[in-house]
Amino acid sequence: MASQRFISLMWHGSCCGFAAALVASLACAQSTVSHGDSSLPGISFTEPTSHQPVSAAGANRTGALPAAPLAGGSDGGQNGGEHQHFYSLSHLAIEGGAGFNAPIGNDTPYITWGGNFTGGVGLHFSQRFTLLGEFQFTDNKLPGAFVTAGGGQGGNAHIFSMTADPVLDLFPKWTNSVYVTGGGGYYHKSTNFTVQECCDFEGYPVNVTTNGFSSNQVGLNFGLGFTHRLGGVNGDGQMKLFGEARYVYIRTPPITETNGLGRTELIPVTFGVRW
Q: Is there a contact between 157 and 110 (Cβ–Cβ < 8 Å)?
């Protein structure tokens, strides 16, 4: 065992010595020095015919290479930190958009067309898959017959939602792509009847809520969207324009209950930008 260990140590030592000699000889060959500066026997150097400025490499008379920066040094740490910071930002997903809503199914007698605002933040797990936490606000007007039955002159139906929605990009490398999305979460719906009263501090009539009801429940959504990538090559651009349509289902209380008009169904159509 002792002889095998000794042979192994001799082998590794020989390899290290050979590598060190090779590096030193390459460094000396690239520098311009006088005969007296040569530390290797049997190697002659030609004296320069004219005075030339000595390079930084030639100033090191030993021919040794400059020490490599430490892996944990200030420069390496700074560059590594910047790379890690950029890497984390590249995985952050942000979106914002607005559009319109169309009532369908059971909702038709109780709300009309309206508008929506959508915002979201999440993570890109890959170029194909993103998970978003989305906030959406929809504002729909009430039909005239329903307003009259409620004893108002006008009215609105507001829906606030906070949902978790995966997004699956079907063609992530393409400039123009299609994606599918869907999810669910918390929905708050309020129905309000208003009348005009006089007046605000500038003398204009104001809408005052005279009657209303609301409810909190779980809802679902799913839809299809289109994206157009802005900038970047080979599918590496981060900013995209998007347009999408979703089906939203909210299990609001039935009309037989005080705060319900039956299930809520909407088609929000949204246009915006996404990173």
A: yes
Across the chain, how many H-helices and E-strands are there? 3, 8
Residue 181 lies in a domain: yes
Residue 224 located in a structural domain: yes
pLDDT tens digits for 190-214? Answer: 999 998 888 777 778 788 888 888 9
Over residues 129-156, the pLDDT tens digits come to: 999 999 999 999 999 998 988 888 899 9
Overall number of domains in the chain: 2
Q: Determine the structural domain holding residue 101 and report its residue range.
A: 91-274
List phi, psi (to 5°) of 232: 80, 160
Residues 131 and 266 occupy one common structural domain: yes
Q: Do both 25 and 95 map to the same domain?
A: no
Is 95 found in the same domain as 10?
no
Which residues lie below 8 Å from residue 105, measured CB to CB, with a gap of 6+? 263, 265
Q: How far apart are CA 254 and CA 262, in angstroms?
A: 4
Q: What percent of the chain has pLDDT over 90?
A: 45
| Helix, strand, coil distribution of the chain in percent, nearest 5 | 20, 45, 35
Q: 87: part of which helix (H) or strand (E)? A: helix 74-90
pLDDT tens-digit readout, 154-189: 999 999 999 999 999 999 989 999 999 999 999 999
Residue 65 lies in a domain: no
d(C-alpha 119, C-alpha 162), whole Å: 10
CATH value at residue 266: 2.40.160.20
